Amino acid sequence: MARELSLEELVERTGEPVKHLRRWRSLGLIGGDGRKGLDLRDVERVRLFQLFLRRGIRLEAIARSVKEGQLGQMLERHMQEMFPQTGAAYSLAEAAEVVGMEAETLRGLVEASGLFDPGEELYEEDVEAIRRMKLALDVGFPREALVQMARVYGDTLGRAAEAGQRLFHFYVHERLRATGLSGRELVERTVAIGEQTGPLVEPTILYFYRRAFARASREDIVMHLAEDAGLLETGEVPGQLRVAVVFVDLSSFTPLTAAMGDLKAVEVLERLSDLVRKAVARWEGRVVKQIGDAFMLVFPDPRSAVACTVEVEEKAAGEPQFPAARLGLHWGPVLYREGDYLGSTVNIAARLASEAERHQVLVTAAVRKEASGLAGVEFAPLGKRQLKGLTDDLELFEVRRAEAGAREKAIDPVCGMELGPAEVAARLSVEGTERQFCSQQCLQTFVAAPERYSR
Fold it and tell me: How many helices (H) does the chain have, and how many strands (E)?
């Protein structure tokens, strides 16, 4: 069981004034469940109630829902998940002493993960995890690498946990509510489904990790052999390597969102994400991250990267009612840190994507040199250009299919969608020029302020 806390300790841990905590206690919000004192469960309760109050939920409504509504059941289940441990509780310093690790080293690892609250007690499960980290240090895994690993695991699995909770809420709980369920019945049905699906989560995460590890291991074997063959330079600091970095984004995405709304924009992004990920998997690359409509991709070699960019652009161009893609690609040295790639190579690739026009794949001379001779692809010289934020001019090339077919698509002047002949929903002649639109909505927006969309 968690050790008891005084009211003063609860104030220190949560920052909530003592008069508020006394009021909350009188309402049965803390120190309940038949307990005489306070403990760590009350710390979690206070933090939850603080969130409720900041979101505009009144204290009386919280107390009523705890006593009579669904919040009481939800809190009980949440506490079971948060505090399943039995046995001794340890402070961070005590846990470090038990496993023989320096307290500051453990503190750095705990803070790097971002998954522990200040002053949170640790239990046997935590101590066992710390022992494993200590073993990694003992066999030669450097502290800085372990800190990076803690950040990657914390960020990645934090995102996975959030996705699990959010998707369950939106697609299970809210759909049950839409059928007319409410109150205790809604909670019971939701909990019943959660009890069936909950045990599936950890094995599924482990399954995906093992699949991803197998792919990463394959690439690591190639890296070892390349080093032995003298094909890779040895970096002065850990994490230096050469990769091909690709950025993909959509032209006119901001006006599309403004004209069509967030839901339509998300549908477009889902279509882009699907075709990008399929192409990346085919060409042995990896999606590093997605920010809005921009994707950052990495490949171990430029030839695979070029082939993938051509495929992505062609697939996007073939999508019905879809914005044009723009892509930038550079090959060069990067620093690998916390699951991400940093350095000027990344910056140049991003700038190239920003410089690219509709349907354009821009690459540097370094890419052209390494990927020359790629079947079915040609590199059209564009001369030297000054890119924003870069001091030196770069010699650029446009990647094209050797036998590219002609594109016969109109561009909606409002949202930027590209339209085939059968996809045009409305037409308007303006001063002898025909404008074509994806919807009546875009036509009406144009008519209301045509000067905004003149080209």
Answer: 17, 12
